[in-house]
Design brief:
The chain has 13 helices and 17 strands. The chain is of the alpha/beta class. Strands 4-12-11-10-7-5-6 form a 7-stranded mixed β-sheet, sandwiched between helices. Strands 1-2-3-15 form a 4-stranded mixed β-sheet. The chain has a 4-stranded antiparallel β-sheet with strand order 13-14-17-16, with helices on one face. The termini are far apart.
Length: 409
């Protein structure tokens, strides 16, 4: 097919309609700026949903992509490869873990974690210990198992009977967690900051209570760090700042800076329950993805970079507070590091999409976290000039939505 003339309308003609993409079509990006097919430039505050943590076209990642791409892309898991072993070693040096399993996405990493938890309980305690506890408004992926474990029923309804043995509790409710976690519980899965559920940080006391209850009842504590991991909260993994260490950690999104990769990290003792043939993947842990991820890990784990995330976080929150002094449309600005959620006041409830659309018109790529929350997940190394330019454009978008003309500053 030689006809390469494609537009946003082409999407509606050729794609399954599970997405409703913006009216513009991004074409290329450098750092925190993106240009569409018409040449218009945007400041990227979305990062591909907290993925491009080092921005677009990072020169060191491009070099790894080229060098490894010229050597070996894929070999399959009947063999191992040097990049995957180096990445596993590095992630284990940086965390509590001493075993890694690599997949292609956060959903697959969570699928592996949940299967491991069920397997551990089955082999250690028998078939009765199978209950998985999750939290309302949580999000753990789109496979049928992970979407059933996730606490947003709209994503699992209409696909037939959901897997049994899954229970949802209110997030940050210590009493409810203590009452529910018991002898039948095999795992508790929790996000240190609920991302899709509205950018809601976990109370450290809540995570501590989960850890204690899991220990008491021989259940595994799984931290879903798909969105919070790899520097996003100002720590390499968010658990480091909670005083709580999980038994299993899942990671993806920023791990490959846009190249698809996910991982499940755990201990040697728990990993032993995944014997040869019990779980698997075709692409997971391929040399191209893991070589890129290793460079991402090297760059993001630098203490100076993580310090920069925390500094940018304060600057971003301060400017958002200033914007709110003018408009009074945010009821809350919350989150950690460069995962920030801005909740809209009652007058603008349900209108997050309107702000995202207006932002696009004014040259800002934005995210939502539900209909009432705007989400900021920019590059961890976004230049302050770009951040300020993006926030100025965002302010123009707000003016458009709320119907005010620019006021004298």
């Amino acid at each position: 097919m030689n006809d390469q003339n494609v537009t946003r309308q082409t999407f509606d003609e050729v794609m399954v309609p599970v997405f409703a993409p913006a009216s513009f079509v991004p074409d290329r990006g450098v750092g925190s700026r993106v240009w569409d097919t018409q040449g218009k430039d945007y400041i990227d505050f979305a990062g591909g949903i907290a993925v491009t943590a080092l921005g677009h076209a990072h020169p060191e990642l491009l070099k790894v992509l080229h060098d490894q791409g010229a050597k070996l892309w894929h070999i399959g898991n009947g063999y191992t490869n040097e990049p995957v072993l180096r990445l596993a070693k590095r992630l284990e040096e940086l965390t509590f873990a001493d075993r890694a399993f690599f997949a292609n996405s956060g959903a697959e990493a969570n699928e592996a974690a949940l299967k491991l938890a069920r397997r551990v309980a089955f082999e250690r305690f028998g078939a009765e210990k199978d209950e998985i506890i999750s939290f309302t408004q949580s999000f753990h992926g789109r496979t049928f198992f992970t979407v059933s474990v996730g606490g947003q029923p709209k994503y699992s309804e209409g696909f037939g009977p959901v897997p049994a043995g899954i229970r949802h509790l209110p997030y940050n409710d210590i009493d409810a967690a203590r009452a529910a976690i018991g002898p039948k519980t095999c795992a508790v899965i929790v996000e240190p900051v609920q991302g899709e559920g509205g950018v809601i940080p976990a109370d450290p006391a809540f995570l501590k209570a989960l850890r204690e209850a899991c220990d008491q009842h021989n259940a595994l504590l799984i931290f879903d760090e798909v969105q919070t991991g790899v520097g996003r909260t100002g720590f390499f993994y968010a658990y480091e700042d909670t005083g709580v260490t999980p038994d299993v950690l899942t990671t993806a999104k920023a791990l490959g800076n846009g190249f698809p990769i996910g991982a499940m990290l755990t201990t040697k003792e728990l990993a032993a329950h995944f014997k040869v043939g019990v779980h698997g993947t075709t692409y997971g842990g391929n040399p191209l993805a893991t070589a890129i991820a290793l460079k991402v890990v090297e760059l993001v784990s630098d203490p100076k970079l993580l310090e920069g995330v925390r500094a940018r976080s304060e600057a971003l929150k301060a400017t958002l507070a200033k914007i709110n002094e003018r408009f009074g449309i945010f009821s809350d600005v919350r989150g950690k590091g460069l995962l920030i959620g801005v909740e809209l006041t009652d007058a603008y409830k349900g209108r997050a999409k309107d702000f995202v659309t207006a932002a696009g018109k004014h040259g800002v790529i934005m995210l939502m976290a539900g209909p009432d929350v705007l989400r900021f997940a920019p590059s961890l190394i976004i230049p302050l000039d770009d951040m300020n330019e993006g926030l100025a454009r965002f302010e123009k978008a707000i003016e458009e939505v709320v119907g005010v003309t620019a006021l004298a500053k």
